[in-house]
From TrEMBL:
Family per record: Belongs to the GTP cyclohydrolase I type 2/NIF3 family.
Amino-acid positions noted as binding a divalent metal cation in the UniProt annotation, renumbered to this chain: H65, H66, D104, H228, E232
One Pfam family from the record: DUF34_NIF3
One cellular component (GO) term of this entry: cytoplasm
One term of GO molecular function: metal ion binding
TM segment ranges: none
Assembly notes: Homohexamer.
Protein name: GTP cyclohydrolase 1 type 2 homolog
Keyword Metal-binding attached: yes
Amino acid sequence: MTTLGDVLAVLEAAYPPATAESWDAVGLVCGDRAERVTRALFCVDPVGSTVDEAVEVGAQLLVAHHPLMLRGVTGVPADDPKGGLVHRLIRAGIALYTAHTNADAAAPGVSDALAEAIGLRVTGPLVPADHDPATGIGRIGELDHPEPLRDFARRVADALPATAWGVRAAGDPDRPVRRVAVCGGAGDSYLAVAARAGVDAYVTADLRHHPAGEHLAAGGPALVDVAHWASEWPWCEQAAHVVRTALGGTVEVLVSTRRTDPWTVGVTSRTGAPQMRGPQ
């Protein structure tokens, strides 16, 4: 019999909780380590739709990247949105486990999965960790052959699940791209690091107007901005593979097919809207 404790031991070996940031909230949210697990579902967000999916597929474990309760709480009443999810999980006999910044820093981790999806050969971390320079935040990688930024942006869009946000690129559309930095999740705090790394492009999520513009004005690499959820979704299969491989098929592992990106509508200007010139 494979227990929840057995599955969590595998996950914690791959994504050590001690490497999570001090502000983070990772680990077991609810569940009994002694209970049997035969099916686990992996997702980015522990929200209503993924809890629904876990119930529908008969999972005893939901593994999420994002924490359910990042800030401290004094109770989990059923009429609270997050407390309600905890009650639903417990009633259905489903444990919830989260691996967040510890999965970001691991090697392989979240950014490795993003790099692999794009087709990059990883050469090292963008921000090496103090305790182990092979781990850390973000990754630097290379394409087999350079391609124009416009084609590279299309490559990224084709590699990730579709979202209303889509994929945006900033920089000369003809700029050759071969050496690339990636950071799953919100990565605009590492713009300067990507610039110092000498890459041709930086792929991340949640880029803001002013930092992006100032970065480009200073001669930084081209930017490719993707939806936060989409940038981290490839990790789900990576983590599922870790469990599948370590436990020899005793636990069926599934990757969520629910799009939990919060943005639901993407609209571009209609013909006849004011036409503006792009950067010259």
